[in-house]
Write a structure and sequence with these properties.
This protein is of the alpha/beta class. It has a domain of 321 residues: Metal-dependent hydrolases (TIM Barrel, Alpha-Beta Barrel). The strands form 3 sheets. Strands 1, 2, 3, 4, 5, 16, 17, 18 and 19 form a 9-stranded mixed sheet that branches. The chain has an 8-stranded parallel sheet with strand order 6-9-10-11-12-13-14-15. Strands 7-8 form a two-stranded antiparallel ribbon. α8 runs parallel beside α10. The structure holds N-(aminocarbonyl)-beta-alanine and zinc ion (2 copies). The site of N-(aminocarbonyl)-beta-alanine has 8 residues, from loops.
Length: 460
């Protein structure tokens, strides 16, 4: 199979030019002006952007969490991602405390393998670090291509590890060529505040927000960064939301520490006033919670300064009926919100169109940087000869409105209902196949491949 994309404007993290792209099989075979190659399919991209497929390195599909499962499974989640221009996702395997990493990996594979439309990879969340877990770290890196290890400094009693486990885990991960990532919030302080609010009868979603003030995140981010500095491990802070945490990251980056930061689309464009809508606020109950306008400004600045390298989603959807598990107690609302399909179009419309970030930066934070940081570059994250032909033909002028009635995520509400956007994914290619064209799906379930990732590179 060969495909020729004609007349498009190719935009990558560091280039912007007009050329044709010729694809043979799964990869890009040639890029040049007026390519005159015979092809099985010719796609006209005149007036359109031709960008690398998005990579969302923070999603939770079919994940057991807070007494239920996230409502998108690997089939619906990766297909919705493709509709929104994201061709690869990195999902989280969660170790069960008392069990092995391989027990968890096998359980996740039983749900994911053979079911994905889009390409997928895994981070391993270590929730119980001990002498047995230690032996599995190298195997994860070398045999499974899982080179990033997630830690939780919160969700006490379920996922949280303490500093006594964190430091030796960092040491072992560094030795094996991996990276430690973190949900950086102070679990003990949050636990205390949740208990306090509940004992005072303060049970609405607003108190989810008030139980996780900015200081819980900035303190943990600072502590994590210092522990990582001590061990020398490469590290990555997931879903960073606020000015206080960003300032710590900015400071430690200036001592030449390799710590990366990710924010998520919701923290850039939504704010905590949504928690004032009584129980409807449950739609945006996530951890960390939405913050203030001043934090949005900090995060946009952090992206432009290169302190924040990635914009992900933390996609973790729940049906409204599931959210209602916490109708009488905010601490029982399953944490998470749906965005896997909306990330690219929201960031383009709210970021590029509003002059907050450049087009190159848009590609950098949605595709190139996740590929570089997580060991997939240059196979993914760029438009180059030899790279996977994961490409989005993007119409920058097409206007549309987000709605649960038309989205493809398996969730019965939208966190962005009624948002009017300009800029839409028209055609999405995954490894040389047209996956979605004008909303029509042209691949089958199971086409998505598991991607083994490389070790952390000293130059990424
Ligand atoms: O609220 C969230 N973020 N849910 C998913 C789990 C996590 O903490 O990332
Ligand atoms: Zn988290
Ligand atoms: Zn998450």
């Amino acid at each position: 199979m060969s495909i020729l994309i004609k007349n498009g404007r190719i935009v990558t993290a560091d280039a912007d030019y007009e050329a044709d792209v010729y694809i043979e099989g799964e990869t890009i075979a040639a890029i040049g002006k007026a390519l005159d190659y015979p092809a099985d399919t010719v796609l006209d991209a005149r007036g359109k952007l031709v960008i690398p497929g998005g990579i969302d390195p923070h999603v939770h599909l079919d994940m057991p969490f807070m007494g239920t499962f996230s409502s998108d499974n690997y089939e619906t989640g990766t297909l919705a991602a493709l509709h929104g221009g994201t061709t690869t996702v990195i999902d989280f395997v969660l170790q069960t405390q008392g069990k092995s990493l391989y027990d968890a990996l096998n359980a996740w594979r039983s749900r994911s393998d053979g079911n994905c439309y889009g390409d997928y990879s895994f981070h391993m969340a270590v929730t119980d670090y001990n002498s047995e877990t230690k032996k599995e770290i190298r195997k994860m890196v070398e045999d499974e291509g899982i080179t990033s290890f997630k830690t939780f400094m919160a969700y006490k009693g379920a996922l949280m590890i303490d500093d006594k486990q964190m430091v030796p885990l960092m040491e072992e991960v560094k030795k094996c060529g991996g990276m430690v990532t973190v949900h950086a919030t102070n679990g003990d302080m949050i636990d205390y505040l949740i208990g306090k609010h509940k004992s005072e009868g303060k049970l609405s979603p607003l108190y989810h927000y008030l139980s996780q003030p900015e200081i819980t995140e900035s303190e943990a981010t600072n502590r994590f960064a210092d522990l990582a500095y001590y061990t020398g491990v490469t590290s990555y802070v997931v879903h960073m939301t606020c000015e206080g945490a960003l300032n710590h990251v900015r400071r430690v980056q200036s001592r030449n520490q390799k710590v990366y930061a990710e924010t998520c689309i919701q923290y850039l464009i939504l704010d905590a006033s949504l928690y004032e809508k009584d129980f409807e606020g449950a739609k945006w109950v996530m951890s960390p919670p939405l913050r203030q306008k001043k934090d949005q400004e900090s995060l946009w600045a952090g992206i432009n300064q290169g302190c924040v390298q990635v914009v992900a989603t933390d996609h973790c959807p729940f049906m409204w009926e599931q959210k209602k598990m916490g109708e009488k107690d905010f601490s029982k609302i399953p944490n998470g919100h749906p965005a896997i399909e909306n990330r690219m179009e929201l960031l383009f419309s709210e970021g590029v169109n509003k002059g907050r970030i450049s087009l190159n930066k848009f590609v950098e934070v949605t595709s190139a940087n996740p590929a570089r940081i997580f060991g997939m570059f240059p196979r993914k994250g760029c438009i180059s000869v030899g790279s996977d032909a994961d490409i989005v033909i993007f119409d920058p002028d097409r206007e549309h409105t987000i709605s649960a009635a038309t989205h493809h995520m398996r969730v019965d509400y939208s966190a962005y209902e009624g948002w009017k956007l300009k800029g839409k994914c028209q055609t999405v290619l995954l490894r040389g196949k047209v996956a979605v064209d004008d909303g029509n799906v042209q691949i089958h379930k199971g086409y998505g491949q598991y991607i083994k990732r490389n070790k952390v590179s000293p130059i990424n």
